[in-house]
Every structure is written in structure tokens, then in C-alpha cells.
Prior knowledge:
2 copies of one chain form a homodimer. Chain A is of the alpha/beta class. Chain A has a single domain (2-275), classed as Rossmann fold. Helices cover 34% and strands 23% of the residues of chain A. A 9-stranded mixed β-sheet of chain A has the order 1-2-3-5-4-6-7-8-9, sandwiched between helices. In chain A, strand 6 (136-145), helix 4 and strand 7 (165-169) form a beta-alpha-beta unit. In chain A, helix 2 packs parallel to helix 9, helix 4 packs parallel to helix 6 (201-208) and helix 6 packs parallel to helix 8 (231-240). The longest helix of chain A is centred in the last third of the chain and has 19 residues, at 257-275. The radius of gyration of chain A is 17 Å and the shape is globular. At the A-B interface, strand 1 and helix 9 of A face strand 1 and helix 9 of B.
Amino acid sequence: MELVSETRCFDGRQQQYQHQSSTLNCNMQFSVYLPPAAEHKPVPAVYFLSGLTCTDQNFATKAGAQRVAANLGLALIIPDTSPRGDDVADADGEYDLGCGAGFYLNATQQPWRQHYQMYDYIVSELPQLVEQHLPLNDRRAIAGHSMGGHGALVIGLRNPARYLSCSAFSPISNPSNCPWGEKAFSAYLGDDKAAWKQYDSCELLREFGQTLPLRVDQGLADNFLDQQLKPEVLKQTLSDVGGDGKVHLHEGYDHSYYFIASFIEEQLRFHARYLQQ
Amino acid sequence: MELVSETRCFDGRQQQYQHQSSTLNCNMQFSVYLPPAAEHKPVPAVYFLSGLTCTDQNFATKAGAQRVAANLGLALIIPDTSPRGDDVADADGEYDLGCGAGFYLNATQQPWRQHYQMYDYIVSELPQLVEQHLPLNDRRAIAGHSMGGHGALVIGLRNPARYLSCSAFSPISNPSNCPWGEKAFSAYLGDDKAAWKQYDSCELLREFGQTLPLRVDQGLADNFLDQQLKPEVLKQTLSDVGGDGKVHLHEGYDHSYYFIASFIEEQLRFHARYLQQ
């Protein structure tokens, strides 16, 4: 992996890297924040998965997370949202399929399956890479926003041995039953809905239960609330399976980074409880 | 003035407005943050002037200032950096002249003088407008970054009756003697350098002294340090005129919003000392 840029931020290091991904078969960029504590010892990491149309830059520049991460001694690992490059399949003019919309799954269908293997990239290749080259220990948490909230819930619930805690802002909670999810899953996974279940947090909760500590924050003035995000389905499912994970509903907040910025401290403090033990 | 958008942020209101400016002869947008305290009583305001190429959005989305402003009960008023619109003169393809580069002065030369009256807009029209329509009292501070740091210093030093304190990140301290300033001042003000002095913070300090409380933060890994920003000239001038304003130099920090985010809390707390008295 090659350092693209580095700048000081809250006495730590805000970095961007690029590397050739063998999982995605393309060149990828990602961002990293290393807190001051990482100068002296390996630190735990929170992976943050971003939403539709985002790159590794949105969360890095808009969430105000570095202040809290510096304080708590946590690294932030911020991947891109899909494979990228001239030979990567894309859906021309569509923001919710193709580049910027990888949905954190392993595609099985053409023309997507050669590059769109974001699940394996996030779960395996990226942690292995950064833990080899950066001052990180093996304590990980996973978080995300919207499409990345879906990704964080799915990846966390399926890999409780790899992540100590899981959180999401405004996640696509039940992608099998909303327009964004149906469109993406049909394209990437095909029409057999049995294959969709492994990428649907509500289905995973029903199958495995709440496998790790979990927190969700959702704004009630979010434009996508009822049609795409469905926090009430997630809340009901958590209750049905006896999970103690909380879905915090916030009056007046929308789907933007102003919402994330307002509650990122609470989410990172939630993760720190498990990461610092 | 017309509300373009509003979203909740740290329990306050992040807003964007547009209005027809009679000073600039064009339609303008600006952003506002109202802290929770403004629901109950008029609050003081910090005006933040942004740098070259910016709009009202950069500081609003990247500085992490709302958290601190909410805490301290301060409003943030974030103007655009120049007049805008199809009939506003521009310098094609140049980032440091024309749109996005108003330099917070009143242009006297063609083709600029019809619209480029940012000094009067910031000092008079905008405060009058927002204080009439928003829950603001008449206690104001002014701050800015780079070109906006120059603007804040100039506007603050010339108007100590209107602003209680003044601060800047990485300001263009001595624009009469650096490439950015020489290019802009020649175009907007003409070649007679006597007319430049009223827009040069070091010249103003020599003429009037330090007329109000002042704080500057400057990163030492800033690419523009020696050629454009010249903090040492500002520091020397402050010392020569017996000012108590501090120029804080920060090892390893660059010109970016990561630097602003790292120290915005200290700058807003500096202003709160004067605004809340």
C-alpha cells in the first residue's frame, strides 16, 4: 500500500492510501486516521462504511470523528464504497447501482462479479493489509451510514469473532424489502431471494440472533425513512430475537452528515467500551 | 431573505438562505448555524469568512464548528466568498480572481466594481439582514481562513465598534506583498498601492494599532506559508505596535480544514470570552 497524502489532525495523522486489491481486481483508495496514541503502541480500529455515492473522503472530511477518535485512542479505517476504474462495470447515470454503490456484498452475477466483491474486501483483505502495515492491534469494530449502515450490520452480525461491536447511522435495515436493496440485490445476486438473506440484517438477526453489541441511530426527519430504511422493522426484529441492541430515534434529524456529526461521539464511545477492554 | 434548507445539527439549526443583495447587485447564498440557546433568546454571532474557491458550504460541512457553537451558545454566519451569477464578471479558469475570490474588498476598477463590493456586504448589509430576521443580538465577532483570514483581520481591525474580537486561520497577512494579494489588488483596486493599505492587516496595524482582541492560528506545514501567508510579518508587526494578539504556530499542520477542525474550538472559546461578557 502506498501513502497518497498525510496531514496532521487533532495531533494524530489523517492519511489516504492506495493499493492494488486482489479481491476487487482494481486499484483502491482508502482513508485512515491514526490517533496520537498510535505513535507509541498499536491501537484498536473502527471501520466506517459510507453510503451511496460516497468515497473514502465524505466521512473523513464531514463527520468530525477525528476529535473523538484522538480522545479515545481509536484508529478510523474508511474504505471506498465500491471497486473503481475504467474496466470496472458501472450503471451509467444511476447513483444506486455500480460505482459508488457496491452494497458491501460479493456479486455472483454478470457483469458485476469480476470486481464487486466488497464483502470479502472489507472483512478480509483490508484488515489484513492495514494490520500488517499500520500500528493497529486486532481489536476491531464496524460502523457505517445508510448503505454503509447496512454493510456494517451485515458484516458485524456475520463475523462476531472479527468485530467486538457494531453500529450504524440510518442503515438500510431490511434491503430485501426496499427499492434500493431490491434493485441492487437483483443485479448483483440475481432473482433467487434465498441468496439475499445473507446480506439482510433483519434476516441475519432472525437466523443467528444478535451476535455482537449493536447500536443504531436514526433521524426521524430522514427523507428515506419509511420507504428505504425501515428502522421499525429492525427494532421489531431485535425485540423478537431478544437482542439488547438499541435503535435510537432522533427527532428532527435528517439523512445528512450533520446528523452523523451530531452523534458520532456517542457511537465511538459505544465502541470504545468494547475495544478498550 | 428566503430559507433554502434547514436541518438539525447538535440540537440547533443548520440553515442556508438566499437573498437579493443590493450591495453586490446579485443573488447571494449564505449559511447560518443557530445554537439551541437561540430558541429562547437572541445570541451573539461569529462571522466566518472562507478562503479562495470556497462557498458558504465548506466551513459549514468540514470545520466541526457547530458542536462548539452549540455548547457556547454562539450563532455562526457563513457568507459566500464573492458575488455570483451569470452577469457577474469572472476571470475564466483562474481560482484566485473573480468568482470565489472576492478578497472582502470594495473593487474600484472595471469590470469588477459593479458587483465586487464584499467589504460593504460583510460589514453592513449582511449583519443588518440577519439581525433583523434571526434571533441574534448585536454582539459580533469575525473570523476566517486564508483569504477569509485576511478579510477577518481587515474587517475587524477597521471596525472595532462593530466586532468584539477577531481571529484567523492561516490568513494572507500582508497581501500587498504576496502573489495572491498583488494579483487581486491590482485587478480590483488598480495599481496605486496607496489604495491597497486599507485592505492589508499589517498596514492597518501600523496605522491604527491592534484595535480589538485578536488571535491567529497558523500551521507550519502549510504549503503557502512563506510565499503567501507570511505569519512572521504579522507577528513582527503586532510586536512593533505593542499588540497583545497572539499568532499561534502549530507544528505539522497544513492549510486544510483538518487544521481548522483541530483548533476551531480554541478560536470559538476565544471569541466567547468577549461575546458573552
